[in-house]
Specification:
This protein is α+β, with helices and mostly antiparallel strands. 21% of the residues lie in helices and 39% in strands. The protein is built from 7 helices and 27 strands. A hairpin with a 2-residue loop joins strand 17 and strand 18. Helix 1 runs parallel beside helix 2.
Length: 389
């Protein structure tokens, strides 16, 4: 048996907030042992977070407790933009295997020293998943992703960068009863319920696919044997007027993650920002690494595209899986919500409706972690969702 529960409180007194939330959680879990708990709180609540955690743990006794500051809290079908408070999500697993960890980074003469990674496990991991909450200013994301990929290949990672602060060093992470201002905190679920993923990058493809015929690092020089600028101009000329207007909000390039598919559609790409054209070399710079031989396609992003992308990915997930979803953790970009959509609660509301009100919680992050294909990436403008069966 697996039980999930969540709670929200807007009370400013930490003990009162902890009591309100813990009683709601214990009622939902029928007082079962609580193994995993996430705490997401607006920055104004972190000043007295130790008092909140002490009271919460006196009731829950969670085996693993992690958290971070959040610009916007997500609770069930609501995205609480502009509201202060604390959201807690808890899970009680039978025969679970959890390993919590805290990552620390320091610069040395030989590079960045990374400490605290969980040790690799011999043999395959059953229903494994990694959850990671990071300080955006002190986390060398590429190193972290590469290290986890080497230690735990194919294991999906979810989470995001702490948000909701004004200046660097104001983000806060929660590791059991300790407050951290640097690095990352996380948990490796070695044995738990199946976890499905939805990573909605909010873009739609335009034009046609091309093969990168010259490119290195984050630069594309030619597509299909032609200068990249030529193919870009051709794609723009063929756009409808309304789509051409969207270019003022940015251009994106999607890289196909599975080259063995017969055709590619929305959701089959890892999206990178197009950073600009080097006028001297004619190369297109991207916000991520590419290589010669990959298939790419130009993309646009707007509210309609983001809405369609999430709906398409949910529909695909429901076609491919017969098991019901009991709970979810949603890490949505702080550039979504009413900054992108005409009305509030877009991501949380749609997921809650389509999966029949799962126990849902999360926050608006300053960068979202989630898998595309069999690899994990740090995204932007994305809704990354971990769905628990």
């Amino acid at each position: 048996m697996v039980r999930y529960a969540n709670g929200f409180s807007s009370q400013s007194d930490p003990s009162a907030a902890a009591e309100e939330i813990s009683q709601a959680i214990l009622k939902q879990t029928l007082s079962r042992p609580v193994h995993l708990t996430f705490v997401f709180a607006t920055a104004d609540r972190f000043e007295r977070m130790p008092e909140f955690v002490a009271h919460l743990q006196s009731n829950l006794h969670a085996e693993v407790l992690l958290g971070c500051t959040a610009e916007t809290l997500i609770f069930q079908d609501r995205e609480l933009e502009g509201e202060s408070g604390i959201v807690v999500w808890s899970a009680s697993f039978e025969e679970c295997q959890l390993e919590q960890f805290s990552l620390n980074f320091s610069r040395t003469d030989e590079g960045i020293l990374c400490e605290g990674f969980p040790e690799p496990v011999e043999g395959p991991l059953e229903n494994a998943a990694i959850f990671l909450l990071c300080d955006p200013f002190t986390t060398p994301t590429e190193i972290v992703l590469d290290e986890f990929a080497e230690r735990f290949p194919g294991v999906p990672m979810f989470g995001g960068m702490a948000s909701g602060f004004v200046r660097p060093q104001e983000s806060q992470l929660l590791y059991q009863d300790q407050i951290q201002e640097r690095g990352c905190v996380g948990v490796l679920i070695k044995k738990g319920p199946p976890v499905r993923s939805i990573v909605s990058q909010g873009c739609r493809p335009i034009g046609q696919t091309y093969i990168i015929t010259r490119g290195q690092k984050n630069l594309i020089q030619s597509l299909g044997g032609h200068p990249v600028l030529e193919k870009l101009n051709q794609t723009i000329e063929d756009l409808a007027d309304e789509d051409r207007q969207l270019l003022r909000y940015g251009l994106y390039v999607g890289v196909v993650m599975n080259e063995y598919q017969d055709h590619f559609e929305q959701g089959d790409f890892l999206i990178f920002n197009a950073l600009g054209i080097d006028e001297e070399t004619g190369q297109l710079a991207l916000g991520g690494r590419i290589r010669t031989g990959q298939t790419v396609q130009f993309h646009l992003r707007d509210a309609a595209s983001a809405d369609a992308d999430l709906k398409q990915l949910v529909a695909r997930d429901q076609r491919e899986h017969s098991h019901d979803i009991k709970a979810g953790l949603l890490f949505s970009c702080n550039g979504r919500g009413t900054k992108l959509f005409d009305s509030g609660h877009h991501d949380a509301g749609y997921l809650s409706a389509q999966y029949e009100q799962p126990v849902l919680a999360g926050f608006f992050a300053q960068g979202e972690l989630g898998p595309v294909g069999d690899k994990n990436f740090l995204h932007g403008f994305t809704a990354s969702v971990a769905l628990f069966e």
